[in-house]
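Narrative of activities, Objective 1.

The group set out to show that a structural description can be obtained from nothing but a protein's sequence at a throughput compatible with the screening campaign. Below is one input-output pair from the validation batch, recorded exactly as produced.
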Amino acid sequence: MRQDHLDGLVTFITVAEEKGFSAAAIRLGITPSAVSQSIRNLEKRLGLVLFNRTTRSVALTEIGERYLQCVHPALEQLTKASQELGREAEFPSGLLRLNVSSAAYLIVLRPVLQRFFSCYPDISLELRVENQLADIVSQGFDAGIRFGSSVDRDMVALKVGPALQAQVIASPDYLLERGLPDHPRSLLEHDCINFRHATGQIERWAFAKGDEKLELQVRGRLTLNSSEVLVRSALDGLGIAYMINGYIEPFLAEGRLIRVLEDWSPTIPRFMLYYPSRRRVPAKLRALIDFLRDERSWSPPREAVLA
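Output recorded for this entry:
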């Protein structure tokens, strides 16, 4: 359909309702001559005479009545759609689809989801939690949450969640049996729980203390690809784990996990919420962005219950 097919419809309906060009002009806030010109253009484009005009009155022709019956409901639907979209800007609603890594879910989203749903009762959330990178545009996601190094440069990206630090953790039982490492290289004599990234690479453990930095490829009999299972395995005493903060705090507070080599813990880049560059961000996504950017909205979960 050509765009000019819609030209003059509002004027046509207004003239039909007001039964006159002058009254329609007052209602529309334009001049009577502009109303008359708009109707002439519409009739010329349609090849129809829509109004019978006299010096005293304006009335719809038979074909004009039929045309009004056809276009009036459609214009009402367009008006209703515009009003509903305008309402969405004030009261965000609809389904928000996110693609996130398991660590991003545990650290960024899980602590705040209950409060987010309370603040925005008309927004529904669909999450695909996977460590494999996805094309969020082709797969229909509104946004994703990953480490900043994983985000393509053509995306709009912003920092979310807490400042991050890599931490070495183990259960009290494991440390009682195997001893406390006093230097990162001491980890080579321990059972360490390895993490395999979606790329297939085993994570190397990075350490920093002052100007000294080093990376280790630790050894262990257990390799995982889930952050949550990694923490569970450390809780079970299966070895020493390397995990970022934001999820493990409750376990540390309860004494179920113990940090080791604290003075060797490096800071790492924060999580980024990213989405395609667009002129206008949907209200439902803008609501999540504003919520996550509010530092007061983030805090570690009070209870860390693992499924």
